[in-house]
Amino acid sequence: MKNPLLQFTSKGIYCEEANVYLDPWKPVENAIISHGHADHSRWGNKKYITHHKNIPIVQHRLGEVSISGRNWGETFTVNNVKFSFHPAGHIVGSSQIRVEHKGEVWVFTGDYKTEDDGLTTPFELVKCDTFITECTFGLPAFRWRPQQEVFNDINQWWAQNRSEGKTSVLFGYSLGKAQRLLKHLDTSVGKIYTHGAVENMTEVLRPIVDLPPTHLITKETKKSELLGNMVIAPPSAHGSTWIRKMVPYVTGTASGWMAFRGARRRRAIDKGFVLSDHCDWQALLNTIQATGAEKIICTHGYTDIFSKYLMELGYDARTEATQYEGELSEENANEPEKSEAE
User: Fold this and answer.
1) I need a surface site. Which of 142, 184, 291, 304 has the fewest CB within 10 A?
2) What dotted CATH number matches 7-141+278-339?
3) Strands (E), the chain
């Protein structure tokens, strides 16, 4: 009996026919990378292939690596196996990876969302036989509001804080979420200041996407400059000595986990905004149905619950263990690989 086209191994998702790995979590010879977050793009591989928009992100995070880029939909062949990248809509440069061999088609999604955020290349549906899907938010309780409604709330919150003479500090992952926030903040309210991790990654992405002006917070930045304005910072900055110069400030977090009752209180955050770069429950189901796939492999997230539900719907569904962590790992997505605690 032949091995499946893609196998889940101790090093990552392996295509034996091509001798390549998709988003390996241990160093390998040949790696095809879906996107730049730390749990999918790791240091130590000999050769990297990714979408060309993801190259500056990978180089910023990992340093000088041997990497080549491809365009959306461009087919490249490795040992008679056809590969191509298709927009995943997760963050800038994020891809689904289509794999075809002898008439059999698999799609590995990496992380994805189907709502067009106005910043990332919108998700593209790819028909396939086997679909490898994340299910970070694979519970019926997760249902996202349209992002415009969320950003209306964020901008109103900022304006209210400004009227009270307070600085707004909004936490979002430095790669992806921070730039999505920047894209949709109402700059007529005030200026936008950034933590160093956010500013560094934003500068990497400015040649690729259109973003508003930002001001890096330095040791010379005065508290009076920040009052009434917006500060974008990674979640790791919360509770740090860095944030003390913001007083008086109000904190907010933009995350899908804010949908959980009590999440804001547990994180000691003043305001929670439900905004995720992953699919909610219904978007996952709609996408799976639209692919036409009969076999579904569920990774990272609520895999057991989600795969069981898919089986009840008649799919040939199963779970596979990976070292991908979805939105849990993105807090450190900009940090050097050697310092990450995963």
Assistant:
1) 304
2) 3.60.15.10
3) 7-8, 13-15, 20-22, 30-32, 47-51, 67-70, 76-78, 81-87, 95-101, 104-108, 130-135, 167-171, 192-194, 215-216, 230-233, 249-254, 271-273, 295-301, 316-319
